[in-house]
Amino acid sequence: MEAKSSSLTVTPRSLDHQAADVIRQQILSGSFPPGHRLIETQLAEALDLSRGTVRSALQQLTYENLVVQLPYKGWLVPPLRSQDAWELYTLRSGLEGLAARLAALAITPEKAILLNRSFQQLVDAAQRGDRNAVNEFDFAIHKTIIQLTEHRRLQEQYKIIEQQIRLYITACNTLLEFDLSEIADQHQSMVKAICCGDAALAQHIAQDHSTADGETLVKYLQELEAKNSK
């Protein structure tokens, strides 16, 4: 049976989302770093889309706090300030600590396979020396743990800030110049605790992981801000 041509039509809304996906990935990968100006005309030309479609995509990204619109100046990838990093790591520590605890309590053999598979992807990316993939799989582990909790409201709250957390993870791993194998090793004990059903230990490790890296990043950014203010 011949497919209806209407089923292949790309709606303007889907183009908005596709454009947002492309721009988001450029931001999260560091190709559009903090402080980068986003010019509608340049993006429209590069994406072969109208300025209106690009503008709609950028507006979507403002809701994720990945882009800000400056009056009379256009769009900007906001810099990561020490205050931003503090807010994100403290909030992340609470949410991901709870998630690790709940995931350990709800662990099953099937869930353990999913989590170990996610962890192995991180290990493989680290062994390849692929920093972008490491950043992606670093976030993917934490997202997998959130999903394993089967806690709908926790998942909904995490979704609100997940793109900011992805950007935070990239900044943390890049600015602090963590060794890729070290990043993988940091997650091993947490994955093991969850798979063993040790809820208290899983929560402790998850919170310590977020707090230690967060405090180091905040200190780094504070020193950078103090240097730039002189």
At a glance:
With 230 residues, the protein is mainly α. It is 75% helix and 3% strand. It has a 3-stranded antiparallel beta sheet.
Task: List the SSEs and their pairings.
Blueprint: H1 12-29, E1 37-38, H2 40-47, H3 51-63, E2 68-70, E3 74-76, H4 82-105, H5 109-128, H6 131-148, H7 152-175, H8 180-195, H9 199-229
Antiparallel strand pairs: 1-3, 2-3
Helix pairs in contact: 1-3, 2-3, 4-6, 4-7, 4-8, 4-9, 5-6, 5-8, 6-7, 6-8, 8-9
Instruction: Characterize the main sheet.
Output: 3 strands, antiparallel
Q: Approximately how much beta-strand content do the residues carry?
A: under 5%
Strand arrangement across the biggest beta sheet: 1-3-2
Q: How would you sum up the global shape?
A: globular
- Average residue-wise pLDDT: 90
- Give the N-terminus to C-terminus distance in angstroms: 71 Å
Count of helices? 9
